[in-house]
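Tutorial handout. Part one gives the primary structure; part two gives the three-dimensional structure as tokens.
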Amino acid sequence: MRAFDDEALPMLACAIIQARMCSQRLPGKALLELSGKPVLAHVIDRLKACKNIDCVAVATSDNPADDEIVSLCSRLSIRCERGSEDDVLQRYISAASAIGADIIVRVTGDNPLTDPDIVDCLVDAMSQDPELQYCCSENSPLGTSCEAVSLATLKHVQEICDSPDHREHVTLFIRERPDLFRVRELRSELGMPDLRLTLDTQDDFQTLSVVFRELYRSGELLPVRDVIDYLRGHEDVVALNKDVSQRRPGNPVL
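Part two.
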């Protein structure tokens, strides 16, 4: 992570990971282990390696089931903020406000292959253009990308949106109405956008377990390019979760 200097870096960029234990499709997935380490710990380590991030934090819910996530954060010396289980938008606003973040990189705790280079590109874009409100990256495997948004923009969304979908999915309204915001979409050079490297089902866990068993080395970050190269030569591993349907707002199994 970059060193923070009030004069050189007036905007604080914080990666905030949303994570909870009560997933409908795969309960407890944030703490499932890949190569002996919880999924959430992998996500945290990858964000710590980012050059343009000032801090990393976790935003979980007030549900007692999420005490385990708080405990893990404590062991890893990572700040953890708690809030509404269903109103994730409010959870992000509360966490970012408590931290003092201007730029929020929204990351989900079920993506143990979040790409640090993509994170850095998003923060750089937001930092270089103070009027930019939202930035995302496309053209990379599912589970490797994320999005960046200003705290001020989330507060504006909160004022004008009250639907459950918009509250749960945080940036959904921005993506539905880009005409109302200053947005930018970056294109990753990774490619393979149809490749599924996220963790939402048991089939996903089987795929990631093989990948980490074969490629991960303790104390090192697993490059996404290495994963892509490996899977290009192992169609049997890709087949483990290729038929999983991605959850969509308003239609959870579409």
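Part three, for discussion. DSSP finds ten helices and nine strands in the chain. The longest strand covers residues 55-61.
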